[in-house]
From TrEMBL:
The lineage of its organism: Eukaryota, Metazoa, Chordata, Craniata, Vertebrata. This is Acyltransferase. GO terms for cellular component: endoplasmic reticulum membrane. Belongs to the diacylglycerol acyltransferase family. The gene is AWAT2. Keywords: Acyltransferase, Endoplasmic reticulum, Lipid biosynthesis, Lipid metabolism, Membrane, Transferase, Transmembrane, Transmembrane helix. GO terms for molecular function: retinol O-fatty-acyltransferase activity. Its EC number is 2.3.1.-. It is a multi-pass membrane protein. It is found in: Endoplasmic reticulum membrane. The chain crosses the membrane at residues 12-38, 44-60. It comes from Vulpes vulpes (Red fox).
Length: 333
């Protein structure tokens, strides 16, 4: 039996890196819950659980105070395999000065925001070399910081809460050269994540513009070409039972449950891993905004329109390079 080649070994390492990323959060949550239940119910070591919960309460605000990043975790060689799997590429169109802070809005969300994680939560795709002097803070749901151990794992990547308090702290207490990464469409955009889709949930998402105005920081548009091509999704009959259930869940918890699928551990198999398709994130020109502590709704709407225009321009300038028809436009909902 022939030994696997170097190419086969590298492919296997890349698949494992993506697989563990998707599964790690679930495994950590289940492990923490069952281990602590076991300690409380079946052993005399329940004080361990009490200590863990006490530390959680004491440390609760850390995700809103800059988090706790670890360079050693951000530089894990496993993340290099993760980025090579697709592969992920980061393209700069303009220099960004470290003498200012920024809010970078990344589009689209896709199903699991693979490109956003690879570029901004790790340092293996070349971010620090492409944008020297800039510190990225990827902002995510506060729910990721509710579970002990998981919160440490997430914070070690440089992630912080996407709450208002967190953004205020990062823009006022961490000096300059900070870049806050916000995936504006969020989970609501998952339903539009289909191969070839260019639909963005952005029409009523103005909070990031208001925050930028209040702090007088530039907005940077970024578009990940190929993000929506990483999974297929089964679309149920509109108005049917399953579709009604999906809409009901979305109304209740603001999450649209998608029937998505991709590849398995081998290239031509079926599974829940993303397809190995290239994703290039193009970072646009910073859009300067004035500092207005209490901007009116009209002012926010004005700069929201300017931001959308800048995003459209970025998309139109680069879409042909990534196989998108010149006639295909961004759809804003």
């Amino acid at each position: 039996m022939p030994l696997p080649s170097k190419k086969d070994l590298k492919t296997a390492m890349e698949v494992f890196a993506v697989f563990q990323w998707a599964l790690s959060a679930f495994i950590i949550v289940i492990t923490v819950i069952f281990v602590n239940l076991y300690l409380v119910v079946f052993t005399p070591y329940w004080p361990v659980t009490v200590l863990i919960l006490t530390w959680l309460a004491f440390d609760w605000k850390t995700p809103e105070r800059g988090g706790r990043r670890l360079a050693c975790v951000r530089n894990w060689c496993m993340w290099k395999q993760y980025c090579d799997y697709f592969p992920l590429k980061l393209l700069k169109t303009h220099d960004i000065s470290p003498s200012h802070n920024y809010i970078l809005a990344c589009h689209p969300h896709g199903l699991l925001s693979h490109s956003c994680f690879g570029h901004f939560a790790t340092d293996t795709s070349g971010f620090s070399k492409i944008f020297p002097g800039i510190t990225p803070y990827i902002l995510t749901l506060g729910a990721f910081f509710w579970v002990p151990l998981l919160r440490e794992y997430v914070m070690s990547s440089g992630a912080c809460s996407v709450s208002r308090a967190s953004m205020d702290f990062l823009l006022t207490h961490k000096g300059t050269g900070n870049m806050l990464i916000v995936v504006v469409g969020g989970l609501a955009e998952c339903r539009y994540s289909l191969p070839g889709s260019t639909t963005l949930v952005l029409k009523n998402r103005t909070g990031f513009v208001r925050m930028a105005l209040q702090h007088g920081v530039p907005l940077i548009p970024a578009y990940a070409f190929g993000e929506t091509d990483l999974y297929n999704q089964h679309i149920f009959t509109p108005g049917g039972l399953v579709n009604c259930f999906q809409k009901w869940v979305q109304r209740m918890v603001h999450i649209y449950p998608c029937a998505f699928y991709g590849r398995g551990f081998t290239e031509n198999s079926w599974g829940l891993l993303p397809y190995a398709r290239p994703v290039t994130t193009v970072v646009g020109k910073p859009l300067p905004l004035p500092k207005i502590e209490n901007p009116s709704q009209e002012t926010v709407a004005k700069y929201h329109v300017l931001y959308i225009d800048a995003l459209r321009k970025l998309y139109d300038q680069h879409k042909a390079k990534f196989g998108i028809s010149e006639t295909q436009e961004l759809v804003i909902v």
